[in-house]
Each structure stands twice: as C-alpha cells, then as structure tokens.
C-alpha cells in the first residue's frame, strides 16, 4: 500500500479547521496531506480508511476510529465504498485524548454517538458539545487498538523498510537486508524494537496486512492476496489477518466489496 511521506522541498501544508460531517468515497480515493488546528476523529461506518502521519499509518475498519491531535500533518486513503465520518474535536476536548495519533476500538455506544454527530450538518452547538463529551468519555474507557505501521527515523532502518514497502512479499532475511542497508542483523533487530516497539517479523507482517487490505478491497481472492503479499498458503494468511484486523479476510472483503 503506498505510503504518504514527507519531502523537504514541498511547502508546509496550511492549517485548516477540522471538517465535520459525512461523505461517501470510492476505493482508492485520497485526501492529501494537511493539518488541522483542531483534533479530528475519522470513522468509516462502512469500508476502511488509512490515516498516515509522520509517525506511520493506521488502518481503521468499522471496528476502529482514528484520532489525529491538533497540529499533526496527515493524509487519508480509502478502501472499498467508504461511508466516512469526520468529527472535529475542539481544543477543550482534545487534551483528554492521547497527544499522539492513534486508533481506538469502536463500541456500540461510541458508534451511535459518532453517527449522531455526523448525520446532520445543522446540529446545534450545545448538542454537538454534549455528544463530543460523550465520545471523549467513551474513548477514555476504550483500549487503543492500532493496526499501526510505524515509520523509521534511522537511515539504516529506513533503507530496509523502503525495500519492503516496494515489495512486501520478499522473503529476504533481516541479515540479508542488513547487508544492503550497511548494518548488522543485530543492529537492525535492536532498531526495530527501539524505534517501533516491535520485532522485524511483526512489522513486516503488519506491512503485508496493510497491502492485503488494499488487494482484498480491489476484489482479489483471499488465496491470490495471500500469495502476492508473501504467504505460502492461505491458512497462515487468514490466521495473521484475523489476529491483527479482528475479522477474517472474507468478512472484511464482504464489508468493503465494490458494488
């Protein structure tokens, strides 16, 4: 799955007020990088959305909502026919949420509150404030569930992750990748843990799952997706996908199927 990356020669994006409301987008549509003066929750009532910041990419299906604090540059990409819900969170509520981008599980009550906040564009300010307060309270009781693919700062680690972004199915060992990047296997293994908080195997599996989400949304079969994303058999892919995403590839594909 293509990643949104920063480029030093590009002008800084303009701060914008976080949009609020709902819309329907087709698979593959994007919202380019931008910044909000307010925080923003993004929820896909159907379909899926990838939110990318300088700290990596979060995938959110209907069982997750992404959070971007004020001032963080971010971009979005959509998979399947997505019913997207955008909720601007005013400053007085933002401090109650994490200071870094993240994603949360969506409980039935949280889902209804998010839908109520976005179903009407003319919602009264006092009702909006009360619903925002309910959303914040519900998020405070909900564990973070980030299908998160972090991005590196170390140049040696970036050389390795760039190779895997270009070909997530490559089965090259960390030692072999290290020779390309000019670092030992031990050094790279340490960098994966210190920068990402996860092993090389876990990071590569998450990368492959991110790519798999796009392939499945485009209509590829589970078997073909497993092979093109690096699994030798569908059963291993199904197990890894279900563990990270919270549903089987078949259920995910049915939910985002293009019609």
UniProtKB/TrEMBL annotation:
Xref: InterPro entries: Homeodomain-like_sf, HTH_AraC, RmlC-like_jellyroll, RmlC_Cupin_sf
Keyword annotations: Transcription, Transcription regulation
HTH araC/xylS-type domain span: 158-255
Keyword DNA repair: no
Region (Disordered): 1-25
PROSITE patterns assigned to the protein according to its UniProt record, in alphabetical order: HTH_ARAC_FAMILY_2
PANTHER family: HTH-TYPE TRANSCRIPTIONAL REGULATOR NIMR
Protein name, UniProt field: Helix-turn-helix transcriptional regulator
UniProt source species: Mycolicibacterium komossense
Upper taxonomic lineage: Bacteria, Bacillati, Actinomycetota, Actinomycetes, Mycobacteriales
């Amino acid at each position: 799955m293509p990643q949104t990356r920063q480029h030093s020669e590009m002008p800084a994006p303009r701060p914008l007020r976080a949009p609020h409301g709902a819309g329907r987008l087709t698979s593959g549509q994007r919202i380019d990088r931008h910044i909000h003066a307010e925080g923003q929750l993004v929820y896909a009532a159907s379909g899926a959305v990838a939110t990318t910041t300088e700290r990596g990419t979060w995938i959110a299906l209907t069982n997750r909502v992404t959070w971007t604090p004020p001032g963080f540059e971010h971009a979005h990409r959509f998979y399947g026919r997505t019913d997207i819900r955008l909720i601007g969170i005013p400053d007085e509520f933002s401090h109650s949420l994490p200071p870094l981008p993240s994603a949360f599980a969506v409980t039935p009550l949280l889902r209804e509150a998010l839908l109520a906040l976005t179903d009407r564009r003319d919602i009264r300010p006092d009702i909006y404030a009360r619903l925002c307060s309910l959303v914040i309270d519900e998020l405070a009781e909900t564990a973070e569930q980030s299908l998160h693919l972090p991005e590196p700062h170390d140049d040696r680690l970036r050389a390795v992750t760039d190779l895997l972004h270009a070909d997530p199915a490559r089965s090259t060992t960390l030692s072999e990748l290290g020779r390309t990047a000019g670092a030992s296997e031990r050094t790279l293994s340490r960098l994966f843990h210190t920068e990402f908080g996860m092993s090389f195997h876990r990071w590569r599996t998450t990368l492959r799952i991110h790519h798999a989400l796009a392939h499945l949304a485009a209509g590829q079969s589970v078997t073909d997706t497993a092979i093109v994303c690096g699994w030798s058999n569908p059963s291993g892919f199904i197990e890894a996908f279900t563990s990270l995403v919270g549903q089987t590839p078949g259920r995910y594909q049915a939910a985002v199927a293009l019609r």
